[in-house]
Amino acid sequence: MRIDVPEGKDPIAYVWGEMVPGIGAAASHLSLSVYEHTTLGLREFEAARLRIAQINGCAFCLDWRTERDGRRVEEGFADAVADWRATDAFDERTRLAAEYAERYALDHHGLDDAFWARMTAHYSQTEIVELSMSIGAWLAFGRLNHVLGLDTVCALPAGPSPAGGRADDASRGPGRTAGR
Fold first, then answer.
1. Taking Cα atoms as reference points, which of 133, 168, 151, 135 lies closest to residue 63?
2. Helices in 8-91 by DSSP H: which ranges?
3. 1 and 11 Cβ atoms separated by less than 8 Å
4. Which H/E stretch holds residue 144?
5. How far is Cα 34 from Cα 112, in angstroms, rounded to an integer?
6. Which of 96 and 61 is assigned the larger pLDDT?
7. Burial level of 68, CB count in 10 A (0-12/13-18/19+)?
8. Among 47, 109, 160, 177, which residue has the least CB neighbours within 10 Å?
9. Distance CA 24, CA 18 (A)
């Protein structure tokens, strides 16, 4: 870890809460909102989230699986996300979610008219904005946690989140809510 955390303090709560209380609380709220208020289907949501986790290299995010109504994506889904161009496990919306996440993170200047024509053929403008905000949150929070070494001290929370997944409360910060 690259941040000094006082002995006895939870690293995530300390960094995201005590060190920067004004910013950390807002970040935690955004992180939870991505999960609590999404209208996206589980597969496209997870395809985008996992692609960002793969790009960021965030250990916690790579282990996380969003749960909705007792359902999670199938085993092997993360491998399919990594192989989004060639996998036959995805419909077009799921493939586009993985592609958009990758291009958003690595080549946002290359999002050309041909790409947007494909996106708007499968996603509403509202869904595109929601997916963009979600990807932005995952990119920022996952990268921050990985860069600071917090992703290796995150623990998967045991309780259900308000959105039906495994998550801790907002005071624990994005590292505990898989808000990446």
1. 151
2. 11-13, 21-36, 42-56, 59-63, 77-82
3. yes
4. helix 125-147
5. 26
6. 96
7. middle
8. 109
9. 8
What's the length of the chain?
180
Residue 173 · residue 16 · CB < 8 Å: yes
pLDDT of residue 8: 93
Relative orientation angle of helices 113-122 and 92-106, to the nearest 10 degrees:
140
CB distance 145 to 155 below 8 Å: no
Closest CA to 142 of 63, 86, 73, 89: 63
pLDDT digits (tens, 9 = 90+) for 167-178: 333 333 343 333
48 has pLDDT over 90: yes
Q: Is the dihedral of CA 104, 76, 57, 17 positive or negative?
A: positive
Are 114 and 123 in contact, with CB atoms under 8 Å apart? no
pLDDT in tens, 141-150: 999 999 999 9
